Amino acid sequence: MLEDPCFQELMELDCDKYETPLSFKEYTAVRSLPPLRPAFRPLEPAVFKPAIPPSAPTSILVITTDLRANQGNPYLHIFQAIDPRIEPRISVMKTFKAEFALPGLAKRPTAVVIVDDALTKPWNTHVRDGVLKYVREGGTAVLAAPYVSHTDFPDVERFFAEAGLGWTFGDTRDALVVLNKAAVGDRIVRHLSGEYDFCASMLNNVDITAAWYHPYTGLDVAPSSSVGYEVLNLRECPIAFGQVGKGNLGYVGDKDGSQGSRDVVLAMCGFKG
């Protein structure tokens, strides 16, 4: 068999790769094999990512259908003040018409914040039903409506009743309130104010396990780090978080929208702890 005239030269170039000489047939077979690929890929450059808690919310739906909510509503923009590590990682969608809330609910947000009472009106029944369906299936909704007045109470109470909660409205007054640590739990209690005051729309018939704050019996009672239940009005509750189906419905009755109550809204949405 005739050999390739270049065979001898190639063999000399590759002879250090083989312990024994190869025949021309063996050599050409080896030369025709595809080159071996490395069994690993080079490591990609490391990209720094903040240590975000795995349970941190990723999407928030804010529902407002009342034009008054655009003028100084203290709860409308609270998500701009959260931990800067988390803020770029979440999506906040604001709806200014009730019908726009339904597509937002279909995306299964981490939490829903309702910042006015228009959702509780009879003409928004379909949206209210959508919110309650979302909550019963495991979602979290928080009603933080500073403009709720006595004339709105029947509509809001109907909303609570549809959720299966027996909450009704009591007085609206300035109150000094204290945190119910047993209801809140150790995970987030350190993130909330132990005591603060605001103009509160109180709820009645709130179970002790759902009442996050209780008012003192009177503003003449001096705040104390070791307050006893004898100076608390357990019949009233300005801030509540109750279970509805597999989810939770929160109520924040702070008409001033004070910092302590804004922290409560964030905690109910999962940003604290």
What would you say this structure looks like, in words?
The protein has 273 residues and is α/β, with parallel strands linked by helices. The chain has a single domain, classed as Class I glutamine amidotransferase (GATase) domain (Rossmann fold, 3-Layer(aba) Sandwich), CATH 3.40.50. It contains 8 helices and 10 strands. The chain has helices at residues 7-14, 24-31, 101-106, 125-136, 153-162, 181-184, 186-189, 259-269, and strands spanning 59-63, 91-95, 111-114, 140-143, 168-179, 195-204, 211-215, 236-237, 239-244, 247-252. Strands 2-1-3-4-10-9-7-5-6-8 form a 10-stranded mixed sheet, sandwiched between helices. Strand 9 (239-244) and strand 10 form a beta hairpin. The chain starts with 6 loop residues before the first helix and ends with a helix. Residues 1-19, 36-54 and 219-230 have low confidence and may be disordered.
